[in-house]
């Protein structure tokens, strides 16, 4: 019997990557994908719990799926990892729970459940190498392809669940990454995004030991140079970076490697030294700003994006003003901002002075205003420029398409033919704070 599956993926780019690998491995093992959960034998939720009340939402989503056809309801990813056995108590219809490092075993687990050999399965083990090596086959290659180079985090920022869900930092061996990139490029990928929670602390097994050095691992600088030497890559990016691990050598690689985009995501979270300390970020606001300045001196074309959290426990008006001051000096072209949300079992959840939601809302609005001021300034500077845009999706209006420029800014254009997944030459004609508008030139 051939079984159908439906998958819903929540969260970050790493989760999108995992979701695609799950689809690949299931289809290659004889399952087929459907787009409606009500027609599926197997329903998979691949989850994220970095913010918000993920389990509550999942409870109600599962509750809404009423279909006699369903034989397996699976919860995978970070919620599964965080909830452990509890997931079966909270959502009794779930009969398969798997963490972010066990999804390569899904065909085996699904067979056991569908054949009635087992009633319920949970696997939250940490099979990183095995997982990456058994899920590197892809059925579809996109022009922009994400390649995980590391997973997990050892930083333990006090607000964050990632070290507990994705586990300790694991770096894939250099040779595995290079082989995967070569294969992707040979099959049509043109932009490679090197991904992970903390890519600039990458320390993967070296493909060979350099003469005069007994170092057995490579850093991200060496990995980027080796990948850039592969023929056929048009653009190379990496994300996400931690400020404390950002080295001068990595800044210099931006000059040495022309296909490496001059755009880096370096989240700062707060501009207050007191809050940064409570967050366990291991740097001060000045140290961070000095790194941006040094980076601009080394590589004048570089632009930055960041993440911010407002309303961290005990954040005062003065602390928040320090964040606004940092924004003014840092000059970001793009940013992501969040109200602090309590994550169970993290140190910040136990901090006593939690901030009222009204104050968080009000600070978030002020922060957005400050960030958008810079965003519109940079977007306006693009007007009149010709840029290579990778078209990623259809826009809301007819014949409208949306792409990304090298600074990950959204570019909106019109076209009579389907140009999704293609690089196009575009003249930027106008801008607002969230995107720019352009005209196709080829
Ligand atoms: N509350 C709000 N935002 C958070 N982030 C991580 N944990 C939390 C939390 N508990 C944000 C950080 C991080 C981004 C991926 O998500 O800004 O950089
Ligand atoms: Fe979370 Fe901090 Fe690690 Fe980023 S660096 S994943 S915010 S613990």
- Tell me the major beta sheet: 6 strands, parallel
Distance between the termini: 49 Å
Number of beta-strand segments: 21
Please tell me the overall pLDDT.
Answer: 95
**The CATH class of the largest domain:** Alpha Beta
The CATH homologous superfamily of the largest domain: Methylthiotransferase, N-terminal domain
- Count the helices. How many? 14
The radius of gyration over CA amounts to: 23 Å
Helix content: 25-40%
Bound molecules: 5'-deoxyadenosine, iron/sulfur cluster
How large a portion of the residues is in β-strands, by DSSP E?
Answer: 15-25%
Number of domains: 4
| Overall SS class | alpha/beta
Query: How are the strands of the largest sheet arranged?
Result: 2-1-3-4-5-6
Write down the oligomeric state.
single chain
Q: List the uncertain runs.
A: none
Task: Specify the overall morphology.
Answer: globular
CATH architecture of the largest domain: 3-Layer(aba) Sandwich
CATH fold name of the largest domain, please? Rossmann fold
Keywords:
442 residues, alpha/beta, Rossmann fold, Transcription Regulator spoIIAA, 4 domains, 6-stranded parallel β-sheet, 5-stranded mixed beta barrel, 14 helices, 21 strands, globular, binds 5'-deoxyadenosine, binds iron/sulfur cluster
What's the gist of this structure?
The protein has helices at 13-28, 54-64, 78-83, 86-90, 106-114, 128-134, 162-165, 174-186, 220-228, 248-256, 273-278, 285-298, 317-330, 357-381, and strands spanning 4-9, 32-33, 42-47, 72-77, 96-98, 121-123, 144-148, 150-151, 170-171, 191-195, 204-205, 217-218, 235-239, 263-265, 303-310, 334-339, 386-394, 400-404, 410-414, 423-431, 435-440.
């Amino acid at each position: 019997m051939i079984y159908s599956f439906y998958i819903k993926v929540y969260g970050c780019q790493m989760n999108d990557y995992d979701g695609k690998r799950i689809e690949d491995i299931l289809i290659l093992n004889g399952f087929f994908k459907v787009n409606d959960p009500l027609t599926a034998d197997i329903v998979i939720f691949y989850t994220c719990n970095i913010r918000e009340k993920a389990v509550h939402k999942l409870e109600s989503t599962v509750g809404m799926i009423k279909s006699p056809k369903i034989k397996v309801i699976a919860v995978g990813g970070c919620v599964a990892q965080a909830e452990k056995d509890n997931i079966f108590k909270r959502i009794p219809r779930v009969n398969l729970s798997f963490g972010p490092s066990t999804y390569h075993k899904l065909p085996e687990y699904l067979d056991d459940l569908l054949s009635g050999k087992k009633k319920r399965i949970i696997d939250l083990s940490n099979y990183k190498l095995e997982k990456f090596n058994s899920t590197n086959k892809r059925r579809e290659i996109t022009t922009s392809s994400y390649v995980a180079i590391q997973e997990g985090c050892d930083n333990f920022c006090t607000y964050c669940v990632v070290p507990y869900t994705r586990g300790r930092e694991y770096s894939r061996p250099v040779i595995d990454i290079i082989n995967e990139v070569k294969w992707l490029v040979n099959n049509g990928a043109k932009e490679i995004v090197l991904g992970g929670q903390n890519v600039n602390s990458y320390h993967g097994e070296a493909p060979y030991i350099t003469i005069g050095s007994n170092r057995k691992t490579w850093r991200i600088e060496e990995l980027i140079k080796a990948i850039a030497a592969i023929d056929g890559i048009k653009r190379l990016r990496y994300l996400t970076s931690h400020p404390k691990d950002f080295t001068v050598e990595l800044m210099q690689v931006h000059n040495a490697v022309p296909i490496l985009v001059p755009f880096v995501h370096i989240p700062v979270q707060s501009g207050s030294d007191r809050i940064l300390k409570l967050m366990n970020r291991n740097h001060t606001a000045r140290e961070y700003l000095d790194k941006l300045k040094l980076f601009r001196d080394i590589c004048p074309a570089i632009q930055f994006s960041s993440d911010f959290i407002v309303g961290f426990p005990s954040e005062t008006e003065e602390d928040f003003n320090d964040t606004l001051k940092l924004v003014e000096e840092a000059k970001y072209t793009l940013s992501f901002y969040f109200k602090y949300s309590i994550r169970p079992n993290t140190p910040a959840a136990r901090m006593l002075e939690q901030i009222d939601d009204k104050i968080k809302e009000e600070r978030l609005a002020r922060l957005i205003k400050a960030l958008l001021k810079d965003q519109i300034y940079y977007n306006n500077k693009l007007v009149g420029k010709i840029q290579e845009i990778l078209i990623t999706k259809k826009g809301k209006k007819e014949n409208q398409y949306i792409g990304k420029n090298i600074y990950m800014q959204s570019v909106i254009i019109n076209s009579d033919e389907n140009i999704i997944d293609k690089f196009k030459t575009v003249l930027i004609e106008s801008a607002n704070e969230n995107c720019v508008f352009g005209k196709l030139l080829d």
